[in-house]
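Technical note accompanying the year-one report. For the benefit of new consortium partners, we illustrate the data format agreed upon in the data management plan: each record pairs a sequence with a structure-token string. No post-processing was applied to the example shown here.
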Amino acid sequence: MSRKINLKKYSFLVYGLGFTGKSVIRYFKKNKISKYLVWDDNSKLRKDFKTNKVFNLRNDLEKVDFIVLSPGISLRKTKNRKELIKYKKKIITDIDLLYLSSNKFKSIVITGTNGKSTTSKIIEHLLKKNKFKVLLGGNIGKPILDLKIKKNVTFVIEASSFQLSYSKFIAPDYAILLNITNDHIDWHGSMQDYINSKLNLFKLQKKDNFALVNNKLKKIFKIKNFKSKLVSPKNKEYQKTKLKIKNTYLKSKANDENMGFVYTLSRKLRISKKDFINSMQSFSGLPHRYEIFLKVKNTTFVNDSKATSFQATKFALSSHKNIYWILGGLPKAKDKFKIADLKKNIVKSYIIGKNINFFSKQLKNHIKFSITKDLKKTIFAISKDIKLFKRSNNLVLLSPSAASFDQFDNFEKRGNEFKRLCRTYVKKFI
């Protein structure tokens, strides 16, 4: 099947009536695509969805041409897994619909275990500053089908492993794979399936397309014999260029890996070094990703609540010395803390959340730590310890290496509460 097709000729099942599913339905209505049915495993969502297009699982699954599956739905866990697996070849994503609907746009698709959102946002910023027509969406910001295809537009798309796992028509002009570490294994079933989902990004690329892949993953790429041009990030060249960028957010090492890719992409897009440097001066970063939000005397406070695995935290721990590290929550399955090369940067750690034993075992015999359980008690404990240790140029870092769900609804609420507590209490004690 060619990339562009007349979607009106096909029938669809929109499976999942959450954020993504509703955007697909809006897209169908806007483009007068009438042959679609809807379904959600949650009966309440089905009832709330006032339409005569509700899907009949037994009678209609075989009839539809495509099943547009929401990215949060795992074939291993959904109630109707047997039926969906039977018709797996029909499953596509909202991103696939974008590629099937038009061939008028260019696309840059970013994936990886860590750093996707920040890298996507930096690329959007870079292109806007250099007068590209650019739209950002996917796993960040608006669903991709809520964005309007315009002439000469470049889509910057953040793609999760969930989306890529089902994608069959995604074909980026520039595909960026930042990194792969142990994550979402419960959703995918195995590490190999997780890796394969990421590699779907390159399957339909052509000879004139580019694949930006870090050196550790080049072997995997070559084994698969993908057609696109393989490019490694110019990290050393970026480090030299970085010295000329006057931006506090980019001074730390936390974003060096991401920026190596962005710099390399800028060269492929023929953006000059001077324009790259000028563009990066004004990038301010995303909330909850190594977010410097407060400075009191000789202490800087950083909210890195988005770091839900140790691999994500590692970048923050390597970026500074005299760190007071707050961690804890729901750890990732089989996550391992390799802190031998980082412990020299850490003054003390503070464990929050309900999984005390897991984090205590990771830190024991390596780093001084206290069990503080909640963020408020942690702020008080750190304030006392800063006075006790009498270090200069301190960094108080919330980088939990864990999901938030034992204490908070999401990482955003965890990060916002941390910022609120620091602003409320820190000045009184430091």
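Partners are asked to follow this layout when depositing records. The chain is about 35% helix and 15% strand.
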